[in-house]
Amino acid sequence: MSDPLVKLERVTFRYGERTVLDQCDLAISPAERIGLVGANGSGKTTLLGLIVGLRRPALGRVIVFGKPREREADFRAVRGRVGLLFQDSDDQLFCPTVAEDVAFGPFNLGKSRREVEEIVARTLAELGLEGYAHRVTYKLSGGEKRLVALATVLAMEPEVLLLDEPTAGLDETAAERVTGILAGLPQAMLIVSHDHPFLARIAGRTLCLRHGRLQEAS
Amino acid sequence: MHRTADGPALLDRIDPRSRILAAIAFALVVSVVNRPPALLAALACAFVSAAFSGVGPRDMLRRLAPLNVFMLLLVALMPLSSGGRQLGTVGPFPYGADGLRLALTIAAKGNAIVLLLIALAGSLDINTVGHAMSHFRVPDKLTHLLLFTVRYLDVLRREYHRLRVAIEVRAFRPGVNMHTYRTYGRLAGMLLVRSLDRSERVVAAMKCRGFHGHFYLLDHFHYSRRDALFAAVAAAILAGIARLEWL
Ligand SMILES: Nc1ncnc2c1ncn2[C@@H]1O[C@H](COP(=O)(O)OP(=O)(O)OP(=O)(O)O)[C@@H](O)[C@H]1O
Ligand SMILES: [Mg+2]
């Protein structure tokens, strides 16, 4: 088996007194699609944050792309290659217009203007968001924001996708479309969702976060 | 006039930077001219521009209304007890020609400037203004501040509404009592904490997308022949108005 892209080794994380992750282990191999379930407040969002260094473990190691990551500088290199879809799209979208928001990541990766414009158009088209380019992000509906947030992540063409409830708030058509898109992507993914049929269709295996540890869910 | 079937209105196709500059120049010139021919020319120019702008007549009137309520007040009150030929009396007060002329001058100036500002800049949304600012070499930080303020004012407003609704659905009725004050205090406190929290998460989102201090504005304005023509016409009109005043 090839080396995992993302590996958590006995990671412990606490918010003050409350231990959210307790010596938790995880490995994501290339092209693997893992579902992540767990009760509200079990620490799923926290776990995703740990992988991209938005939070630091109290104990244990975070290994991404084969290197242990500890400091901010280590994670800076990670973030261009690991895409995180936030649970709340309002946290994710901050540019005035949709096109600018989608362009933000690719520009930061050093793409040229022409390449970026091409990426923006293609990504929006893939998600059925043609005609949204010049819409103002804060005036979009909740579901539209969700799709645009997904576009901002996909536009960076990350090697690993961490998706925090990608289909939450989407109507059937949009959810179906997102499922189709995700199923067609080659990247490794960790997908948080409470939608079990969705996970059954898209994820190879599903893990459950309980009492700070991950177990295979039946 | 209004947004026509064949694309944006004539003035809306002009580069926003030229429009903003022209509006500023016009406001400067009109604010110093005083002679009736110059003022009439300025008003006429403002009306014609308004006709070619993307702002509909109803919107235009709505935006001009507050100004003109004030102007009506001026026309009514300023001539009272003013000098010049006496036009009549209102009760015990003489109604003087000098005052009327002054009031009308101010009304003409005010309307011309505001009308033209609306015609030239009224159809720009705040984002375009932000972009134009960055092109005028307004410091990046200020531009970002503007763009972020616009974005997050709305998040704040929504956060506020969410809290508001949350307390109202639980039968909160404001009154003059301790419970009301305490509730409002909590509301304000929560709003601040939540917004702070929100801003931290946004920074996180930006970091996740490789942010390192520079914003890229996707909309690049292109300076075209049309803009050069617009600048020439605007300059000619301003020169004309100045000529009516000073020659
Ligand atoms: N910034 C924070 N400060 C303190 N405690 C926090 C913070 N963020 C989350 N928590 C707590 O940590 C626990 C895990 O939160 P997390 O957001 O990871 O849960 P989750 O599994 O994503 O839940 P959900 O399914 O509701 O999204 C919760 O009990 C939560 O109250
Ligand atoms: Mg969560």
List the helices and strands and how they pair.
The complex is a heterodimer of chains A (218) and B (247).
Chain A: E1 6-15, E2 18-28, E3 33-38, H1 44-51, E4 59-64, E5 67-69, H2 72-79, E6 82-85, H3 89-92, H4 98-108, H5 113-126, H6 142-154, E7 160-164, H7 172-184, E8 188-192, H8 196-202, E9 205-210, E10 213-216
Parallel strand pairs in A: 3-8, 3-9, 6-7, 7-8
Antiparallel strand pairs in A: 1-2, 1-4, 4-5, 9-10
Chain B: H1 16-32, H2 36-51, H3 57-77, E1 86-90, E2 93-96, H4 97-121, H5 126-135, H6 140-168, H7 178-208, H8 225-246
Antiparallel strand pairs in B: 1-2
Helix pairs in contact in B: 1-4, 1-8, 2-4, 2-8, 3-4, 5-6, 6-7
Bound molecules: adenosine-5'-triphosphate (ATP) and magnesium ion (MG).
Please explain how this structure is put together:
The complex is a heterodimer of chains A (218) and B (247). With 218 residues, chain A is α/β, with parallel strands linked by helices. Chain A has eight helices and ten strands. Chain A has helices spanning 44-51, 72-79, 89-92, 98-108, 113-126, 142-154, 172-184, 196-202; strands at 6-15, 18-28, 33-38, 59-64, 67-69, 82-85, 160-164, 188-192, 205-210, 213-216. In chain A, a hairpin with a 2-residue loop joins strand 1 (6-15) and strand 2 (18-28). In chain A, helix 4 packs across helix 5 and helix 4 packs parallel to helix 6. The longest helix of chain A is centred in the middle third of the chain and has 14 residues, at 113-126. Chain A is globular, with a radius of gyration of 17 Å. The model of chain A has no long low-confidence stretch (mean pLDDT 91). Chain B is mostly helical. Helix content of chain B is 69%, strand content 4%. Chain B contains eight helices and two strands; from the N terminus they run H-H-H-E-E-H-H-H-H-H. In chain B, helix 6 packs across helix 7. The longest helix of chain B has 31 residues, at 178-208. Bound molecules: adenosine-5'-triphosphate and magnesium ion (MG). Residues 44-45, 87, 164 of chain A line the site of magnesium ion.
